[in-house]
C-alpha cells in the first residue's frame, strides 16, 4: 500500500512539472493594471468600538420579515433615538434583477452636516457569483473607490467608501449578504464631518445585522452532453455545444461557447458577442499520444488560432474534484490575441486522470482586469463544470475497438 502511495505522489509531481513546462511560453504582454482584487480589497480602518454593554444600552433591537419572505428576515440593532420608515409590507412584491427593492430605511437626528441613515435593499441574484465577485462588479460599474473591503465568507462582504450625494459627502459602511437567490445590501450613511463621533456606532450596527433564516440558493439548471458511457459533461443552460463527427473513439472533443445575444427593438437577434470559449477533450490512456503531448497539441492549436499563452498566474486552488478522479490539477495563464495587443485574456487549464482516460478542459475568457464581471461569471461556471465531471462505468472498462 505504501509503495502505491509513493508511486502516485511521484506521478503527480512529474505531471505538474511536465504540464507547466509544456504550457510555459516566452510570450510576454504589456504590463497591465494592478490586479483587481489587490486594488480594491483593503483592511477596514480601525475603530474604537463601544463595549457590548454600552452598545446595547445605546441601541434597540429590530427584527423584521419583509413581505413575509423567509429569505429576507433579519435582525439588527439601531440607535435608540432613530426613526423608522417601514417599506417592506406591501403585498405587491416582485423582485428585480436590475434595480434594488427597498426593504427598510432608518433615520438619525438631523445635523447641520446632514442626516445619518441606514438603508436595507434587496436585488434578485443572477448568475453564479460569490458575494465578493458580485460586489466588486457593482463597485466597478458604479465607479466607486473603497477605503476598506473585507470578505467574511462566500456569502458576506463588507466595505467602507466615501460617497458624494448631491452636495454632501458621506462615509458609507456596507454589508452585502447572499441568501437564497437574493442580494441583500445594508448601508449606513454618516456625514463625513460626523464620522469621528459615529464611526463606532456605524461599524457595530452593520456588524449586528444578521439573517434569521439561511436559505439555500436554487440550483442552476445544467445541460448534459455525454461522451459515450465515459463521462457526462454538465454545462450551464445558456452555453452552446459545438461538436464534430467522432472518427476516433480514443480521442473525443467538444467545444462550449458562452455567447451573449443583442436583440433589436423587434426582438430579433441583431448581433452577438462571445463571452467565453471552452474545449473539453477525452483521451484514452491507451492512445499513442502521451499526456504531455496532448497538452502540447492544444497549445499549438491555440497559437494557430491566434491566441498566445503567456506567464503563469497564481494558481486558483478553490477547485473541487470528484472522488473518482485519481489526479487533477488546474493552472491559470495570461493570454493574448496575436492580432490585437490591447485584448487581455486568461487561459484556465485543467487536466484530470480517472479510470482509463485523461480529461482536458481549457477555458479562454476575458481577463479579470479587463472585463471583471464576465471573467467572474465564466470562471465560476468553469469551476462548477470541473466539479461535476465524474468518470462513469465505461471509463474503467478495457476496450477493444
Q: Could you outline the blueprint of secondary structure elements for this entry?
A:
Elements: H1 2-23, H2 36-40, H3 52-58, E1 59-64, E2 74-79, E3 83-86, E4 101-111, E5 114-124, H4 131-142, E6 146-153, E7 156-165, E8 168-179, E9 182-191, H5 195-208, E10 210-211, E11 222-227, E12 231-236, E13 240-243, E14 251-263, E15 269-284, H6 291-304, E16 307-312, E17 327-337, E18 340-354, E19 357-366, H7 372-388
Helix pairs in contact: 1-6
Main attributes?
7-stranded antiparallel β-sheet, 23% helix, Protein Transport Mog1p, Chain A, elongated, disordered N terminus, 401 residues, 19 strands
Task: Provide a concise account of the structure shown.
The strands form four sheets. The protein has a seven-stranded antiparallel beta sheet, sandwiched between helices.
Amino acid at each position: 500500500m505504501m509503495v502505491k502511495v509513493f508511486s502516485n505522489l511521484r506521478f503527480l509531481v512529474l505531471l505538474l512539472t511536465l504540464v507547466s513546462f509544456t504550457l510555459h511560453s516566452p510570450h510576454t504582454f504589456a504590463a497591465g493594471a494592478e490586479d483587481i482584487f489587490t486594488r480594491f480589497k483593503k483592511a477596514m480602518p480601525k475603530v474604537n468600538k463601544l463595549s457590548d454593554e454600552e452598545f446595547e444600552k445605546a441601541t434597540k433591537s429590530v427584527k423584521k420579515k419583509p413581505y413575509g419572505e423567509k429569505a429576507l428576515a433579519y435582525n439588527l440593532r439601531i440607535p435608540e433615538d432613530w426613526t423608522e420608515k417601514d417599506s417592506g409590507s406591501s403585498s405587491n412584491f416582485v423582485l428585480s434583477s436590475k434595480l434594488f427593492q427597498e426593504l427598510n430605511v432608518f433615520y438619525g437626528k438631523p445635523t447641520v452636516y446632514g442626516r445619518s441613515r441606514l438603508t436595507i435593499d434587496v436585488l434578485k441574484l443572477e448568475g453564479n457569483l460569490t458575494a465578493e465577485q458580485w460586489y466588486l462588479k457593482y463597485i466597478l460599474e458604479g465607479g466607486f473607490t473603497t477605503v476598506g473591503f473585507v470578505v467574511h465568507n462566500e456569502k458576506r462582504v463588507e466595505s467602507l467608501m466615501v460617497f458624494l450625494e448631491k452636495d454632501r459627502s458621506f462615509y458609507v459602511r456596507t454589508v452585502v449578504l447572499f441568501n437564497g437567490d437574493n442580494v441583500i445590501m445594508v448601508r449606513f450613511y454618516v456625514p463625513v464631518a460626523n464620522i469621528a463621533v459615529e464611526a463606532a456606532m456605524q461599524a457595530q450596527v452593520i456588524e449586528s445585522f444578521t439573517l434569521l433564516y439561511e436559505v439555500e440558493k436554487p440550483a442552476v439548471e445544467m445541460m448534459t452532453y455525454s461522451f459515450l458511457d465515459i463521462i457526462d459533461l454538465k454545462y450551464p443552460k445558456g452555453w452552446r455545444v459545438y461538436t464534430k463527427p467522432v472518427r476516433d473513439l480514443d480521442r473525443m472533443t467538444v467545444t462550449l461557447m458562452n455567447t451573449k445575444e443583442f436583440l433589436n427593438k423587434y426582438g430579433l437577434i441583431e448581433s452577438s458577442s462571445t463571452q467565453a470559449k471552452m474545449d473539453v477533450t477525452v483521451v484514452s490512456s491507451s492512445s499513442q499520444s502521451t499526456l504531455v503531448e496532448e497538452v502540447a497539441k492544444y497549445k499549438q492549436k491555440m497559437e494557430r488560432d491566434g491566441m498566445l499563452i503567456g506567464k503563469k498566474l497564481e494558481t486558483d486552488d478553490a477547485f473541487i474534484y470528484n472522488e473518482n478522479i485519481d489526479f487533477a490539477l488546474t493552472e491559470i495563464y495570461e493570454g493574448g490575441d496575436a492580432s490585437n495587443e490591447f485584448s487581455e485574456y486568461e487561459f484556465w487549464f485543467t487536466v484530470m486522470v480517472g479510470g482509463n482516460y485523461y480529461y482536458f478542459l481549457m477555458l479562454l475568457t476575458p481577463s479579470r482586469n479587463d472585463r471583471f464581471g464576465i471573467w467572474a461569471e465564466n470562471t465560476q461556471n468553469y469551476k462548477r463544470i470541473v466539479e461535476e465531471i465524474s468518470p462513469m462505468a465505461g471509463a474503467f472498462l478495457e476496450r477493444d475497438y
